[in-house]
């Protein structure tokens, strides 16, 4: 990374609130190219202080602004886009979080519609310094950044930026982090890539629907892989292979992720279907990414060291 | 309806496979206007015989072709579009149905992803005559037509034509039938209306994912209602008020429909919230519209005669 | 029914709060015998007035008292118990209903655990006369009685009386009403039958979790059918065959009911599996019985007139 | 552990297939007492080789045999039973696993009833030696034992030994392992404790429904804690506090676990409710224990080091 002067920066003033092909590309990149993508936070920086209530400063459906679309040269429908996440650095020294009325995992929502009163709205602002988010009570959360949202465009649809799906999207899984490669289906020529919603830290499930939200510089390297088509996002770390399923109810998200992981084990590691199923019952790992977005996202994982030799 | 010469016809050769505002309108109508909309079947007439297997003749994601967008003059964001369904007539003398691999209520699907083998693919073609669909064994299903799909456009999204949502869409609820008024939220100026997927008959749940599919002429009268914004589709028959919720799991679809019905009873019939909740526990009715689409659609109903005086 | 002097009465002072074989039978009946079973209401008559708050007068887990176990002579494990419901008459002139904190379809519950405040607790008492339940606003609900709870014992388990399952139980489906035959699996010799929780009227879903609760005299005729084992409750009316599935999420309850209905159509009406599936997609009906109990209960139905000849 | 001669052994020949109070206790223990409990495997040792197909050698509902009930002296209804797991040692040198028809996470099941064919039945037998389970391909799984099933009795119910719930039961969460304290609600005097179903290793979700099943010696120390009543199982490791929720759909299991964890943080660590909710959105961890049993079990966790000072 020493040669930062040669890394192209991608910035925009006009964010995208959907994943689709109906807007204007903000940049075009080549396979192999490393770029620094500057991303807004999920609130488009409208929540700067504890008095900036989301219910007042945000306007539906203009939520979770994405930097994109970014066209990737040479990516053809049916290919796989491989996005290597190299760095995620905050571009400010604080994060914000919030309890938003009728949003989150332990309240009625627009999907789980109830008559019960909503919880109090509340905004939190935490310093981000020395590699930690500093909460009250002396609680320090290690800085473990990732992009909550990373997507290609669906072929025909334009899907709201709060939603995850087969195309990636607002998965809110902490595994889309530096050091990992995120593979996404290419549904249209050029892939039409989006990212945003960087989190400095997040618990499993993103329980109240909001993490440690920050603006960021996200350094990635783009790659295009031809020949094999994937159905759902795949993530590779130095030690694990992982797949992400997004659906409701949560067991369907889990099932999608497991089946996609079995398909990967069959295609690249020589497993029979039942054999992979059997190994996962003993050694599969699963992360609850989000249980708050329009679809829940779960990650199925297996350690590469268990994939045999 | 004697004066059919004065009813404008809306036909198209270029169908829409999403609900959104990114395509070209096929027509513009005025409030109060009656039009005959010609609709394709869900297979775009590519399944004409039992040898036309959907897995071979259909191309994802170009499914469930919609006639639209139709712009409604004077409809403003925040208004309600009231579509009075006057007639639905078949434009051919048969219907088709099918069991499609990994699609339907009693099989693994792309959402409920499993390792089990799929059921056999099979196509059915039934005569439609004398007010009946004629099945084998001498079974005659009364002709009870409705449009499976009826929608306005979301504000920013373009949603695939197989999906129902707050904007209506592919709800597959038999209550969107002649004699009823379907109210939909207007999310953008002009409403951008779509319809298609007429069914000659359908059971609750549309169990295998395919009903008695037909091409049709759909006569509707458009109205625009200002002043009150609705959150989810509302349907009114001569005897009932109804709301449609679309979500997964199915209980969330039910909850949405009930809450919207309570909001309607509060707004237009003078009920307190708890009072409406109490009446519905005793006298509410619920229909399972579909349990096969990307979101399930359930209809909550209450008889007008029980809404007091 | 003219010879009422010869109908045996079954009453008890010691109710059962579980379905199982660990208590003492309150009666033994013979196949073909008609009996009048006296049942308590779901609150064991502790809610007599609007000041009798359930949260104060009820004691968990002593809820939904059942009259039973009633041993049916000659019923063997693997048989089917056929209970013909002949009459349900109230034994008092009012019903009660209630909104109970953290219970019901539109609130957080012990299963859908949330942080949101509960809705207000409120009790309702309605006159029952002249074939109607009389609500405020001049709303009159027709008297359409059924037993909310009707069960055989599981083989080993003792299941709380609020819960429905393969053994029947607290299904809260209005189809267990006079004129219909309810068939239940016999899991142990003697069947060990229970019933209670009569409702004077109920909407689909029993939305707030409480219907028009009453004490009742329930006249039934018991029958034992050997030779075929059923997996889930089956109900037969003069015009329909029906099955009840109980599970969460709601789509699983629906799937169970549909599959059991297909099994019935195969066994007794000569259908092939796919043929039955195909007919149900066009003509199946579905009722949401309850969406409030520990398992949701849905009823799948098909009109006998559509089962061919 | 050097003084093993003084540890009492609890063995039985008559296992319990339900959690309840209707059977005969196999032992009575005192608070503070350390005992060695010998447990059967989930198949009651009937699957010893790859030809022993579960569908042939098992008899419903006599599944998952439990050692118990064990009465704990001095435990009163409303107390909490604290079970410190000290050791789990295999009592044979192999484990078994299996794919069982219509059972598991990626197939239709009795609850998710479908028409699709079942997957092939297959039994696996793996050596257990040198601290590893040895799978084909040279895959070695570290020996990480835990008891899949650990329960107190419900007050009135007798619940099948395959089912988890508020009382613990067949949770299949790897956190009920040596080094941890499992706290369970005491619902009846004496607590009536059960355990069994030891696993040598298990992946998250226990994907196919069967882990590395083994017979075992389980050394525990019993404790009784008065004064505070817990609603769901709580687990404490040297570094984390954890709660287990069991329900369907999976999001309800998650909600239960999170709410119980918040209650714990409020009661013992001085958090306000919203404050705990906020911390968990940033730092909570969640494990998918099982996604195959009658209720799914999820574990919510927070690191003790983040609970402030």
From TrEMBL, chains A, B, C, D:
Alphabetized InterPro entries for the sequence: FmdA_AmdA (IPR004304)
Entry GO MF terms: hydrolase activity, acting on carbon-nitrogen (but not peptide) bonds, in linear amides
A Pfam family the protein falls into: FmdA_AmdA
Taxonomy, superkingdom: Bacteria
Name of the protein this chain belongs to: Acetamidase
Source species: Baekduia soli
């Amino acid at each position: 990374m020493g040669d930062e002067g040669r890394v192209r920066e991608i910035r925009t003033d006009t964010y995208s609130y959907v994943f689709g092909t109906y807007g204007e590309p903000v940049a075009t990149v080549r396979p192999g190219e490393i770029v620094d993508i500057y991303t807004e936070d999920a609130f488009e920086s409208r929540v700067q202080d504890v008095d900036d209530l989301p219910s007042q400063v945000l306007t539906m459906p203009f939520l979770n602004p994405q930097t994109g679309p970014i066209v990737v040269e040479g990516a053809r429908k049916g290919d796989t886009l491989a996005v290597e996440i190299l760095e995620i650095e905050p571009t400010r020294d604080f994060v914000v979080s919030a309890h938003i009325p009728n949003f989150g995992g332990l309240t009625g929502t627009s999907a789980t519609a109830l008559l019960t009163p909503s919880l109090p709205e509340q905004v939190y602002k935490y310093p981000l310094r020395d590699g930690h988010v500093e909460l009250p009570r002396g609680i320090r959360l290690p800085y473990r950044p990732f992009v909550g949202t990373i997507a290609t465009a669906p072929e025909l649809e334009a899907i709201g930026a709060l939603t995850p799906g087969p195309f990636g999207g607002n998965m809110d899984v902490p595994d889309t982090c530096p050091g990992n490669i995120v593979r996404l289906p290419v549904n249209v020529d050029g892939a039409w890539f989006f990212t945003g919603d960087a989190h400095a830290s997040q618990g499993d499930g993103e329980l109240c629907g909001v993490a440690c939200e920050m603006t960021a510089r996200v350094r990635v390297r783009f790659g295009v892989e031809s020949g094999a088509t994937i159905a759902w996002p795949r993530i590779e770390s130095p030690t694990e292979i992982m797949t992400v399923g997004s659906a409701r109810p949560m067991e369907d998200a889990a099932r999608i992720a497991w089946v996609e992981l079995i398909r990967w084990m069959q295609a690249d590691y020589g497993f029979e279907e039942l054999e992979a199923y059997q190994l996962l019952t003993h050694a599969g790992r699963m992360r609850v990414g989000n249980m708050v977005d329009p679809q829940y996202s779960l990650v199925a994982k297996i350690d590469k060291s268990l994939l045999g030799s």
